[in-house]
């Protein structure tokens, strides 16, 4: 068995959840600029996340869920996870995005667990606050080490797949490190680089 951890935004899903959420507020372009800089490693992830979520204040939770339940999956996502599960691997998603999206994706794609953040809401609207499992630059690496201890899985049996700067911390704890359509800052940490938007290409690198 291998432990295989995927990032969600721009890896399993084609795009950034928070950018989609900003669109109804007319803030997609403003938020996307911050997201892009954070994924290139130019901004502290915690600060960039909280800044972007503050901009979502007032958005209806019903609208959040509608958007999160209709995000476009990356080509090959369903086929890839199905094959990995058939081969007996544990497949987990770490996301600096939100549970509204990752838990729904788990129901559709069938991976084992998702760790992400929670958008705080009151009276059916977002308050602009956020908390959860993946708030910091180090969060993915920290959580990966905990899962490895829990599952009795070593670095040699761990595969990670991601695209942005906040995936670097988990790359430090895996033997197979796949940069998928990734920023240059992450490619430097990878030993496999995939440049085509086709997740099935991951399968060729997992035994």
Explain what this protein looks like in three dimensions:
- The chain is α/β, with parallel strands linked by helices and 207 residues long.
- The protein has a single domain, classed as HAD superfamily/HAD-like (Rossmann fold).
- The chain contains nine helices and seven strands.
- Strands 4-3-2-1-5-6-7 form a seven-stranded mixed β-sheet, with helices on both faces.
- Helix 8 links the parallel strand 5 (158-162) and strand 6.
- Helix 2 (28-39) packs antiparallel against helix 3 (45-54) and helix 4 runs parallel beside helix 6.
- It is globular, with a radius of gyration of 16 Å.
- The N and C termini lie close together (10 Å).
Strand element count: 7
How would you classify the helix and strand content by structural class? alpha/beta
Shape: globular
Q: Helicity range of the residues?
A: 25-40%
Parts with pLDDT < 50 across at least 5 consecutive residues: none
The CATH superfamily is identified as: HAD superfamily/HAD-like
What is the helix/strand order?
EHHHHHEHEEHEHEHE
CA radius of gyration is 16 Å
Spatial strand sequence of the major β-sheet: 4-3-2-1-5-6-7
Number of helical stretches of at least 4 residues: 9
